[in-house]
Amino acid sequence: MPFSAENRKGTISGIIFVAIFAAAATMIADISFIKNLGLSPLVIGIVMGIFYANTLHHHIPSEWGNGIVFSGKKILRFAIVFYGFRITFQEMMDVGLSGFTVSVVMLSSTMIIGSWLGYKIFKMEKDTAMLTASGASVCGAAAVLATEPVLKAEGHKTAVAVSMVVLFGTISMFLYPVLYETIIKPATGFLHMTQQEFGIYVGGTIHEVAQVVAVPASIPGAPESMAHSAVIVKMTRVILIAPMLIVLGIYLSYTAKKEGGEATKAGLTIPWFAVYFIGMVGFYSILVNLFDLKAAHPSDLAVMINGLIANINKIDTFLLTMAMTALGMGTIFSKFKGLGLAPLYTAGAMFAWLVVGGFIVTKVVVAAFS
């Protein structure tokens, strides 16, 4: 336990260590030159974390590792819950059936394609293939950890899957802004998307929630609607992990009976932070409607509430920066050695499907519902 008597001091030290990095990333992001490049503190934080992980990580006490892991998991989920103060149900309705459909199609197709490619084509062990596919199809490392008890997989298989998610999720975080600026940007890109379409595309195809938040923040002049669409679609994917795990459990039970073995029994892991996020969106929606927070000429009370929410969002951005920095600190390139090429091929193939197939699916679905 990270906050048990013997681990508490190391955990707190690790969290403070991450917070110092996040504070530095925030200050760097505020430099005019960096700000003009459109680099958010989230992006700078993960770059700093990766640099640290591959150069200086052996110079700090190992006990601090608990605090770094805590920042990359618990603080991340806490920050995502409070991201709900930026989105209303009206904005969720604006994304509508197109966003939901993209989420369902990309989750199910990526899970099926990844599992089949890993097991049948690249000859990976079945559990490892499914874990890797779950991370790419739903929400990165959190999905891998949620799928592990359903499969009853060994720890080293989970580590392989998480490594692939971290590698390609990080690549996507830097690739998507470049794609937007070069070939997707409205009016100038030859594969143009509207800003809302691009938000749906980002939310429907990128691995981690924090990476989805970081992409629109990395695009100069990106409107809030792009970020909102991305996060709404991404959280839809996260919420869909519950039915995915139910279907997976039924499938494993069916195949076990068919092969003459015991049916697989595992408790359902619900991503509660996604449920709390929806609750926070509901609370913020009530505040917006009750006090007319988005009015052209808000009342004094509305101004005060908006000021409070603005401060909450600043704190939330800092917590997200901490989480991204911590994820970067876990990206040690030497971990990828010795894994063999099968996981890399599988994760790379799913990444190609997410980028290319996700673009096509988003364009087709949005056109169908427009």
List keywords for this structure.
mainly alpha; about 375 residues
Approximate helicity band: over 70%
N-end to C-end Cα span: 50 Å
Structural class: mainly alpha
The low-pLDDT segments are: none
The fraction of residues in strands falls at: under 5%
Major beta sheet summary: none
How does the overall form come out from the CA principal axes?
globular
CA radius of gyration is 21 Å
Topology summary:
Blueprint: H1 8-29, H2 32-37, H3 41-53, H4 65-82, H5 89-121, H6 126-137, H7 141-151, H8 155-184, H9 195-205, H10 209-217, H11 224-239, H12 241-258, H13 272-291, H14 300-329, H15 342-369
Task: Please explain how this structure is put together.
Helix content is about 75%, strand content about 0%. The chain has one domain (about 85-310, about 330-370). It contains 15 helices and no strands. It has about 375 residues and is mainly α. It is globular, with a radius of gyration of 21 Å. The model has no long low-confidence stretch (mean pLDDT about 85). The longest helix has about 35 residues, at about 90-120.
